[in-house]
Design goal:
By secondary structure, chain A is mainly β. Chain A contains 2 helices and 5 strands. Chain A has helices at residues 63-66, 85-89, and strands at 28-31, 50-60, 76-84, 99-105, 109-111. Chain B contains 10 helices and 4 strands. In chain B, the strands form 2 sheets. Chain B has a two-stranded parallel ribbon with strand order 1-4. The two termini of chain B are 45 Å apart. The longest helix of chain B is centred in the first third of the chain and has 15 residues, at 36-50. In chain B, helix 3 (71-83) crosses helix 4 (85-93) and helix 4 (85-93) crosses helix 5 (95-101). Classes of the chains: A mainly beta, B alpha/beta. Chain A binds chain B through residues 10, 12, 15-16, 41-43, 45, 57-58, 60, 63, 78, 80, 82, 88-89, 94-95, 97-105, and chain B through 92-94, 96-97, 110, 112, 127-128, 154-159, 170, 173-183.
């Protein structure tokens, strides 16, 4: 059972161009558990964890491609996702209601209710 | 020469091997061979200069430009946000544009500003490497890049903050921001009590680097 944090979506639009992406602020999302080889900006400690979209940052080149001098296109939507410490570290978390926010690209996210 | 004094005197001098006259250990000279990456950097730099792609003067100017970026730039932004609500709103909506408004060139920096409130305290880390808003605050402190800070800040932020001297009440939520991708983060601290009527310059002086990383809070005293 996942623990979700409260999120107040920011009262302003993303400052960087975006197609809008699949997820809106407040949406519950799960970080995919995948372990692809190469340069990845999705930290291990968040894989498989569920949080809420805090904001849409914009669309940016895919770092997994850019790291190997490819053009990183098409740009991917980048989100700030907020996680409850209780979700990330379990019931023994130092401050269960404290949160950690990380930037996660859309292709690493799925809807929290996806099978 | 540091140890050239008269050895015939029978003063009660400190005579441990490898220690200075005042009793401090000498720092070893860094005359080890260059590492692989140091050689690589020199080779690439010299080739770029040789081929006319850049010049030594350009490289020096770029280093000087980086060194000119200091936490004082962030302090100017914080002080203005404290007494200009319109600016604060623009800063939270688009940190890089607000930098430009203050005459600070973001140079590609995508700044997100997170605001401390009575209910929530923010702190910044990069668990994957050492991402830091360098184009605003200058180079990060060495501890920011250590494995201990990077791994512990997301796991036990309250314990780490206590080690920095910041003991947060239990009813204040800690929000850790892991700079995992394209954004860089600055904390907007709360304006401390006792600073009413202060000039911008006086406010800037109490906003240190650590307050903008979130491991400290400013105080009037």
């Amino acid at each position: 059972m996942s623990v979700l944090p409260d999120v107040t979506p920011p009262p302003f639009p993303p400052p960087y161009p975006t197609r809008g992406g699949r997820f809106a602020p407040g949406a519950a999302v799960r970080v995919k558990k995948g372990a692809a080889p190469g340069h990845i900006r999705t930290p291990w400690y968040l894989r498989g964890k569920t949080g809420r979209i805090e904001r849409v940052c914009g669309d940016f080149g895919n770092p997994e491609e850019l790291a190997y001098r490819r053009d990183g296109r098409p740009a991917r939507t980048l989100y700030r996702v907020r996680f409850a410490m209780a979700e990330v570290w379990g019931a023994g978390a130092e401050g269960p209601d404290d949160t950690v926010d990380a930037e996660i690209f859309e292709h690493w996210l799925e809807a929290a209710d996806a099978p | 020469m540091p140890h050239d004094h008269d050895h015939d005197h029978d003063h009660d001098h400190f005579h441990h091997e490898g220690m200075s006259p005042s009793g401090h250990p000498y720092r070893p000279d860094n005359d080890r061979p260059l590492t692989y990456w140091q050689r690589m950097e020199i080779a690439v730099r010299e080739l770029l200069v040789e081929k006319g792609i850049t010049t030594a003067a350009e490289i020096n100017a770029q280093i000087a430009r980086m060194d000119a970026r200091t936490p004082a730039q962030g302090a100017r932004i914080v002080a203005r946000a404290w007494d200009d609500p319109g600016f604060k709103a623009r800063l939270l909506a688009d940190g890089s544009r607000a930098m430009e408004e203050m005459g600070i060139e973001p140079d590609g920096l995508k700044l997100v500003v997170v605001e401390n409130t009575e209910a929530a305290h923010n702190v910044v880390v990069c668990t994957l490497c050492s991402c830091y808003p360098r184009n605003l605050l200058g180079l990060p402190p060495d501890w920011y890049k250590t494995r201990a800070y990077r791994s512990r800040m997301v796991k036990e932020p309250r314990a780490v903050l206590r080690e920095f001297g910041l003991d947060l009440p239990e009813d204040v939520q800690v929000r850790v921001h892991d700079s995992t991708a394209d954004m860089r983060y600055m904390v907007l601290p709360r304006r401390p009590a006792g600073t009413e009527g202060w000039s911008r310059e006086r406010l800037e002086a109490i906003v240190g680097r650590d307050c903008m990383i979130g491991v400290a809070v400013p105080s009037a005293g």
